[in-house]
């Protein structure tokens, strides 16, 4: 098994995920979490005046940056952003997005494996106030190594934003669809599909975070109900209403634990 490179599926990924309600929910939940978690630490991710830059620009690293939505948004807000992805095709789309948004030159583009970037950052003693790693860990050949490798890149007061494919969400969806045969054997993805190579429990992710001396600051569910519905009726016919309810229930027990993905914001454990 190798780290997944999306050169062959970049167009399909863009169409099926980020051109759909799925992508809108993912971006909205993660952005809400980032805004609120940074604010709780006295850091303004965006200035009150939309036309001005934040008082203290953050050093941001996005690993597995994909189509570059977060890199572009953060660069537009005046933060110092380093984008990384192993896929040249994904990076090309991200650069097109950045060029259209007028922030192409404001982003440092690092195309290649995240391991190469981490090694170079270690050598240069680089640290970041915010490290983003969204929907990437489940595509790695050795996912257990990721958190330990990137934790030294976090500044003392830095935050790690990590989203991952939720094993409980995968199991629940297959229960809803009657795919009981899939639940009776170890998790397995299908080559050539957008089904990740791995699915993780929250307990497994927390174990890796604790081993790296990080603790969970917040955990939210991503797509806690809209992925499970087959009939678009009532409020489900409204994208805005669906997004509002996804945001509402993404933080509520027990619903958040059924999200197709979970978003964890972690910080250094002072203990």
From TrEMBL:
S-adenosyl-L-methionine binds at residues 26, 64-65, 85, 134. Belongs to the class I-like SAM-binding methyltransferase superfamily. CmoM family. Catalyzes the methylation of 5-carboxymethoxyuridine (cmo5U) to form 5-methoxycarbonylmethoxyuridine (mcmo5U) at position 34 in tRNAs. It catalyses: 5-carboxymethoxyuridine(34) in tRNA + S-adenosyl-L-methionine = 5-methoxycarbonylmethoxyuridine(34) in tRNA + S-adenosyl-L-homocysteine. Its EC number is 2.1.1.-. This is tRNA 5-carboxymethoxyuridine methyltransferase. It comes from Gammaproteobacteria bacterium LSUCC0057. The keyword Transcription regulation does not apply. GO terms for biological process: methylation; tRNA modification. One of its GO terms (molecular function) is S-adenosylmethionine-dependent methyltransferase activity. It is an enzyme of class 2 (transferase). Keywords: Methyltransferase, S-adenosyl-L-methionine, Transferase, tRNA processing. Residues 61-161 form the Methyltransferase type domain. It comes from the Bacteria. The gene is cmoM. InterPro entries: Cmo5U_methylTrfase, Methyltransf_11, SAM-dependent_MTases_sf.
């Amino acid at each position: 098994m190798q780290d997944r490179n999306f050169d062959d599926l970049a167009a399909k990924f863009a169409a099926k995920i980020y051109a759909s309600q799925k992508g809108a929910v993912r971006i909205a939940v993660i952005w809400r979490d980032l805004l609120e978690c940074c604010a709780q630490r006295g850091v303004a991710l965006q200035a009150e005046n939309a036309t001005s830059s934040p008082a203290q620009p953050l050093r941001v690293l996005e690993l597995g940056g994909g189509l570059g939505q977060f890199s572009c948004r953060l660069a537009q807000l005046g933060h110092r952003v380093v984008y990384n992805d192993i896929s040249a095709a994904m990076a090309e789309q991200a650069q097109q997005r950045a060029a259209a948004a007028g922030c192409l030159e404001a982003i440092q583009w690092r195309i290649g494996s995240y391991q190469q970037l981490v090694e170079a950052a270690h050598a240069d003693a680089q640290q970041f106030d915010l490290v983003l790693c969204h929907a990437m860990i489940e595509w790695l050949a050795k996912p257990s190594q990721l958190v330990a490798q990137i934790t030294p890149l976090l500044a003392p007061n830095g935050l790690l934003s990590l989203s991952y494919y939720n094993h409980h969400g995968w199991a629940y969806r297959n229960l809803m669809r009657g795919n009981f045969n899939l639940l009776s054997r170890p998790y397995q993805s299908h080559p050539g599909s957008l089904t990740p190579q791995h699915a993780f429990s929250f307990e497994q992710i927390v174990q890796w975070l604790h081993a790296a001396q990080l603790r969970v600051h917040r955990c939210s569910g991503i797509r806690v109900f809209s992925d499970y519905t087959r009939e678009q009726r009532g409020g489900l016919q409204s994208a805005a209403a669906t997004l509002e309810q996804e945001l509402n229930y993404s933080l509520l027990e027990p619903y958040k634990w059924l999200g197709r993905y979970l978003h964890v914001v972690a910080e250094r454990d002072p203990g």
